[in-house]
Design a protein that fits this description.
Largest sheet: 9 strands, mixed
Low-confidence stretches: 92-144
Number of helices: 19
Distance between the termini: 51 Å
Shape: globular
Helix content: 25-40%
Radius of gyration: 25 Å
Amino acid sequence: MTIMNDETREFVAMHRNEDVRELALKAKRVEGLDLPLALDQIAGWQIARKKLPQWASCEGIVYPPHISMEQCSSQFTAQYKSEIAQTLLAPAATVRARVSDSGESDNQTTKSEPQLSDSAESVMQTAKSAFQLSDSPESDTLVARSSMVDLTGGFGVDFSYLARGFSQATYVERQRHLCDLAEHNMAALGLDQARIVCGDGVEYLRQMGPVDFIYLDPARRDEHGSRTYAIEDCTPNVLELRDLLLAKSQYTLVKLSPMLDWRKAVADFDGTVREVHIVATGNECKELLLVLGQQVHEEPSAPRVFCVNDNQRIDYDSAAYTQGLRIGGKPLPEAKNYLYEPNASIMKAGCFDLVEERFGVTQVGPSSHLFVSATPVADFPGRGFAIEAIGGMNKKDIKRLLNGTKQANIAVRNFPLTAPQLRKKLKLADGGPVYLFGTTMQGCDHVLLRTSKI
């Protein structure tokens, strides 16, 4: 790793709020200034300021080239992984609290129930204390009693947050420059428990002793550099390592592509997946996380699924909700006053029958994945809209629905036209306070719903 000299460090401090492209063209060549390194640091800090604010506020962090910064985990997703680790390894009382109101809540929750139960909020606070390495006795207990290994270290963002909850934390990475970077940055972050190992993660796994927790983020590119998604095509192939991982750790957390079908991924691991975490932020699905662990019972049990989109969180027993869409199971309400669109994590999970039951809403039709309600629903995990009018695609209905409107936000779900095609047909500009949804209702009717955001 190239260490910044004084000239380069001063240049970065002076110009880190400026446009990197303009700096590259206009910066004066000063003796001792490593301009390429300086530009990488300025660009890295500018990304970290939004993506990793805790890192950005830490003096002494050295950033990698731009592409690594774009691909690394965000602070939100890294902290969430640390929350998973700490709640898995927490005392039994905390573990019991982790499942909101236990599995029975899936059948008893009303539509007014908030997303995050008091017990789940308590777990989040416990995890946050671990992130910050607070001086409380509870935090010290969490930190003092466990060990973890990250077998695919990379830039080290995930490792830096996971390590804060462990007394012994080992980072393993094959590339020497990344190891050097990690060693410098972990010291800058004050992670004295971090141990950096330059070597192959699979070989290290074979030779190491048992630990409490293992983390892997397999590389999703093949030998030619092309992007890949299937578990068996990633490096390392976690399916081949499954038994060894189970033998060497109490729990293993595997990060996979959000494009994968989580049900197939669970089936591929053949009964060893304890939890599935679908993590989204800004309503964009970012990660699919699987927790592997030894089977507690002789018969494989279905994993619990956690759907996360920023502060919107629900969890459920996947065995209890497998139907997805129950066609005709619940008739539409006579008064369709509110429309609800689930967030990205719910859409990925496909737990639409759970959403119906837990929030008292009704699916508008098969495969539409939109919900209606006669009354407003508190804390729905997604976006809510007040329905102003509903109509068909004939000219009379369209004229009534638009009522002189010249612009609208348009979305389609299970509709014969794409959003651009519908916009062109209706001759509407983009934007404004009107939200127009094209979808298919029960009875296979193509409809337009004119709404306003609530």
